[in-house]
From TrEMBL:
<dbReference type="InterPro" id="IPR000639">
    <property type="entry name" value="Epox_hydrolase-like"/>
</dbReference>
<feature type="domain" description="AB hydrolase-1">
    <location>
        <begin position="19"/>
        <end position="168"/>
    </location>
</feature>
<dbReference type="InterPro" id="IPR029058">
    <property type="entry name" value="AB_hydrolase_fold"/>
</dbReference>
<dbReference type="InterPro" id="IPR050266">
    <property type="entry name" value="AB_hydrolase_sf"/>
</dbReference>
<dbReference type="GO" id="GO:0003824">
    <property type="term" value="F:catalytic activity"/>
</dbReference>
<dbReference type="Pfam" id="PF00561">
    <property type="entry name" value="Abhydrolase_1"/>
</dbReference>
<dbReference type="InterPro" id="IPR000073">
    <property type="entry name" value="AB_hydrolase_1"/>
</dbReference>
<protein>
    <submittedName>
        <fullName>Pimeloyl-ACP methyl ester carboxylesterase</fullName>
    </submittedName>
</protein>
Length: 271
């Protein structure tokens, strides 16, 4: 099949078996999904996990021809064709990656065995149109940020609902590294074209096992706009977690892991 883009996605691959493709969020890289999924799949043998970096993020280049989200989706479609061929796969999308994952599901409905969305962009792509709760801190460890690099502290506190030594560690390892690697010039070019031409929910409903998990205190994408997705995903479990913001995967790791395990089990039973 002819390639749609001129870019190739850097990716990390772990394990063997049924493919699991995981797409990260805006400005980040593969670590944000690898960091939360690998502890889960360590106890689930038989799955091949693929973690690509989106163009302009991580170690994937974004040439001038990559000008918007349509091009990001094309790059992901090329990656699927190159790495998976005709093989069916499970699909995970985090934040903006959830928006792309829904569009990929519409483009390849027969190939996606199940869809999991973690704090996904909902029906409102433009942040100014989202229904968002005010920023809120529910757990704050005294002295946590003493001596922390100011940029790390600023990025961490912008979204953190649970501020502890552990969540700060996970933020540094899973989130901050991606932020520092991002191609700011490319992202500035892409920023004005974040809405896809293809409506992810514009086709037939997706009737395979789905998980949508949102943070009750998520002030980045919220949890209200995601509720409107449910009619399109009749096999979806929809969970809104308290004490959780946009990084709920490491603010509520045990519950997050249990929900992912349940989703994987439902996909296996459906097959």
């Amino acid at each position: 099949m002819p390639r749609r883009t001129s870019t190739t996605l850097h990716h990390i691959e772990v394990g063997e078996g049924v493919p699991v493709l995981a797409l990260h969020g805006w400005t980040l890289d593969h670590r944000v999904v690898l960091g939360c999924l690998e502890p889960v799949f360590a106890g689930l043998p038989g799955y091949r996990r693929l973690y690509p970096d989106l163009p302009g993020m991580g170690r994937s280049p974004a040439p001038e021809s990559v000008a918007g989200s349509d091009d990001l989706l094309d790059a992901v479609l090329d990656f699927v064709d190159d790495e998976l061929g005709d093989e069916p796969f499970l699909l995970v999308g985090e934040s903006f990656g959830g928006y792309l994952a829904r569009a990929l599901t519409r483009a390849r409905p027969e190939r996606v065995l199940g869809l999991a969305l973690v704090c996904p962009v909902g029906t409102a792509v433009d942040r100014t149109e989202r229904v968002l709760p005010p920023p809120e801190v529910l757990e704050d460890e005294p002295g946590l940020l003493d001596g922390v690099d100011p940029r790390v502290a600023e990025e961490f506190t912008e979204d953190a609902v649970v501020r502890t030594t552990e969540t700060l560690r996970r933020f540094r390892e899973d989130v901050m590294v991606g932020i520092e690697l991002a191609d700011e010039t490319a992202l500035a070019r892409l920023e004005g074209n974040r809405r896809l031409s293809l409506d992810p929910e514009g086709g037939a409903p997706f009737t395979r096992p789905t998980l949508i998990v949102a943070g009750r205190q998520d002030s980045v994408v919220g949890h209200v706009d995601q509720y409107a997705l449910l009619p399109h995903y009749p096999r979806a479990s929809f969970a809104v977690l308290d004490l959780a913001g946009h990084n709920l995967q490491f603010e509520r790791p045990e519950l997050f892991g249990a929900l992912v395990v349940d989703w994987v089990d439902r996909v296996a039973r459906h097959r």
